[in-house]
Amino acid sequence: MNEAIQGKADKEPPQPNTPIHSFQPGVSPEEKVKIEEAAGTVLPNTPLSSDINETKSVASDTKSEKFGGPNIPLERSATAYTTQSLQSTDSTATVGWKESNESFLSSYSGQEWQNVACLVAITLVTYLLAKLGLGLAWCLVVLAFVAKYYINSVKRFRRNARDDISRELALTKLFTDTESTEWLNMFLNKFWLIYEPALSATIVSIADGILAVSTPAFLDSLRLSEFTLGTKAPRVESVKTFSNEDDETVEMEWEVSFTPNDLLDLTKSQLRNKINPKIVLEVRVGKGFVGAGIPILVEDISFNGRMRVKMRLMSSFPHMQSVDLSFIEPPSFDYILKPLGGETFGFDIAHIPGLSAFIREQVHAILGPMLYNPNVFTLNMEQIMSGVDTEAAIGVLRLHIRNARNLKNLEVLGLSDPYVRLHINNRAELGRTSYKQNTLNPVWDETFFILIHDLNETLSLEVFDKEEIKKDRSLGTATFNMACLLDEPEQDHIIAKVIREGGKEHGEVCFDATYCPVVEPTVHEDGTITQIESNQGILKVFVHQAKDLTHKASTKHSPYCVVKLRGKTILTTKVLKRKSSPVWEDAGEVFVNDKSTAVLSFDVLDSRGVAVDPALGKFSIGLNEALKRMEEQNQWFPLRGHYSGKLRVSFVWSPIELSSEIIPAGHLAPPTGVVRLDLIGARNLKNVEKIGKSDPYVVVSVSGRTLTRTEVIGNNLNPEWNETHYIGIRSPREVIYFDVYDFDKVGKDRRLGSASVPAKQIFGEQIGKNRWGPGAPQELRLGLHLEGKERGEIHLKASFNPLIEPVSPSDPVTPEPVEGSEVVAPTQALKKPIDYTQYTTGLLSVTLGHTQGMKRQVETPYADVLLNNNEYNVVHRTKAKKRATNPAFDEQCEVFIQEAQFATISVCVREMNDERTVIARKTIEVPDILERLSKEDPTDGYWYEFDNTDGKILLKFKFSPVEISIDESESWINKGLVNVKIIKAQGLRAADSSGTSDPYVQVKVNDVKIYKTKVIKKTLSPVFNEEFTAQIHDRNTSSLIFHVYDWNQVQSSEQLGYFQINTNKLEPFTWVQDNFELSDGTGTLTLRMMFRPEHVGRMTTDRKQTFHAATRSAIGKGVGGATKVVGGTIGGIGKGVGGLFSKG
């Protein structure tokens, strides 16, 4: 260590201000002192506070005592070794003689090898002398050399050890003891007299504007009429420096005080010219000429505190990156406050018991979160010194709030009405969503643009329950640390837990966050600066001042300015009372999505309190024109409506490049693939029924959007669905939710449990940007959770199938030449459009636009999108509109098409009532859609005429093919309806004694009775001519069985024969009519049948019945009836009465 320090000291050049002393032997000591004093180079008698100087002084005293010379201090003792150089040698201090580490003593053992070498050399030399036969005299010569070497070695060792120990002790004292700062206080005492008037004037100008804004309505004005800090400067009592491992950080502790009324250290001249600190706040009450000013006096201010100062250094100018300030403990302060009576007759309210302590506690409560340990106040010196606007936004956060799940219910009757408020670091509200009525799983689908000033802050999404009368109640807060956006600016489907008071989780919020920073201008080598052209950016508007607002000397206005962008207020300046030429210097920022169409309006108003504020003048200007005037340095704008008034404003435009396209509300991002879900079954579900068991079904959703649902399994806690569903997926961040509900025919369905699977668990390997390979099928058994408890499990399989790029023909097409036009060369040939008809599976996106030509006004219209007329598993349901004749929906959905050649898409415009009355309907075959997409540009969509009424609707389609093998059991043509007509029977066996029979036909599907004809008495060739429709859930395994019976009045019916046919032998959409021979009997049965592929299920619609309709249905005859659809569940009510799921 001593060698490192000595080497650094030897290399350091002498300071230019170091005094040069010359030796003059003929001059007495007194004369030498006078010469040095005249030259100004004599050192002060007071020892410096630096511990390094004390160390050097110890070394000098030791030498002078040894050599008997005068004690003259060394010249470079104060400058040769700085604190930084000492810290760089060793950061570990010692106390007394205790060693700090092994390297301290090892520095003195570096020459032990020389001692060993000396001993070995002595031995070899004496041995050589003896061998040569030399005498004792030669040995004494060798011993003399060894003795001299020993003396020099010991002397050097002691000298180095003494110096290093002195330096170690000084370094320890530097970091443990405080340093005196009298030299700094002496500088402050002289500089304060010059700087204090300018500082006080600056404080008055700043505070006056703040007070003008904060003036209560019952006061006319609030002014800071007098402010001075006095002639006595603040003091720095002591400074302590702390050791740390970071070379770029300096940490100190400063004790500062401001006691201007301490007179003991003032001279007579300073006492005569002394000015005490004084603050006079003038409060003006009343209005106009009847107003009067009341001075509030604050004087005799004193302050004392200890502050931790942490400075971060950097290599470039200004070499100080930031300064962190923090009070180690609450500072002490005192003052005299005279609210009435002024300086002469005022009464100090500190004498009122309890009031002074209350004011002190309020001051600590306000300053604590900003300045008291562990909180710090950071000054970004790099930004301040660079001249950059430190208050300007650095970028924009595009926040898309999707939905929330499982929120807390605070309502006694019904459910909460949640909405979200946005804050950053719990500051003022930045925005809020709309509220959703009566739900704990709201879907907002709303986008906000938030200006960001510091990414090292926290975004808060506080969920509230909307109340009509009382104050809205908080349901909890979800937080998001925006610092992660530096590494990943685009993040979608972020799941943030909602935390309530006490730290308990109760729900979650799903949102997307995209950070778009301000694009800095490009500086070229020649010094020129270019800025990108962007239609989006951040606009900062500065409202500086106005002039000539008053044309009469006796009239005084209280003007303020309101700035609006497209009618939305972005800035309201402070009100400056009784000012004809106000100076506001206020600024506001706003995100502009379209600069070319942005128009700004400025309204200068006169504040009149409770009365309507009249306009003093106004003007409007387009944003592009405003920026052009800034380039011309033209900031004054005449006010329209005022004969002479002018307003000075300026604009700063910061362009932003949005990283991706803004997706409007109600629309979807492009998909990445399709997830196949085989929903097998569930086990041990919760029973929520008082009579019977639950009737479970599964709802599959992503980001609050219901994508599909299973059939209802009646009266079963261990249901088996065995259904296959396909859903589109957009990002590996998405989460697929499985919610199991109990179906209720009339009331609200109750949740039995929920489970979820992250999409990334199903995805394959990533093969490119936003591209993933296929994922292997996974069998999952997920626990169902309800209110924090596990309520059974759900069994399913899941796999991921990516989209495939549509392939267009490689051969170019050369357009046919037209007369009068040039022939297009083959190299300029047009590319053939994509033939979508070659694909049979994929995702079909449907965008519903507006309608035209409808003649009937509907109170609450909405639209349903159906696949294959499946009204139970509705693809998408739009939001209901209010009182519209031609409603505009502007919503997008998508559906998986597994067999395009058989699929149909239907759009139904309905009225929101109990019957969901169909106002208009349009059904389109998917092959027609694909054929049209292959021929025409689908950018603007297509108009489709309604099938049942006047009018048309604008629809836009987009098809994304997916390569998936559809099993025959999953095929759409594997289920549907069989239209059957029982025409007649011939040649039947006579079962009665009369030689005839009373025949009728009973029809079964897989041993389940679905239909029975009427009885034709006393005939062997009955003619029935009856028709019915049978539901077929599995065409490959189902059979239609026709039993012909003889009816008996007393005994049971006697079978005359039967006929069985497998439904897979019925070709779709093909009528089959024949005479079929009866088995186990004689005769034939004439039938006419056709199979029509269509959605069939236990549920035919998702519409709930009203209580009156349900009761009427339960009292009715049950299955069959006027609907003529058998094998289904239309006729029953369900749970306990006839059975919604009854058979037969």
From TrEMBL:
Protein species of origin: Basidiobolus meristosporus CBS 931.73
Every C2 domain range: 378-495, 517-637, 652-773, 826-944, 958-1076
Lineage: Eukaryota, Fungi, Fungi incertae sedis, Zoopagomycota, Entomophthoromycotina
Pfam families noted in UniProt: C2, SMP_MUG190-like
Biased composition (Polar residues): 43-61
Protein name: Tricalbin
Keywords of this entry: Endoplasmic reticulum, Lipid transport, Lipid-binding, Membrane, Phosphoprotein, Repeat, Transmembrane, Transmembrane helix, Transport
First and last residue of the signal peptide: none
GO MF assignments: lipid binding
Residues covered by the SMP-LTD domain: 177-382
Superkingdom assignment: Eukaryota
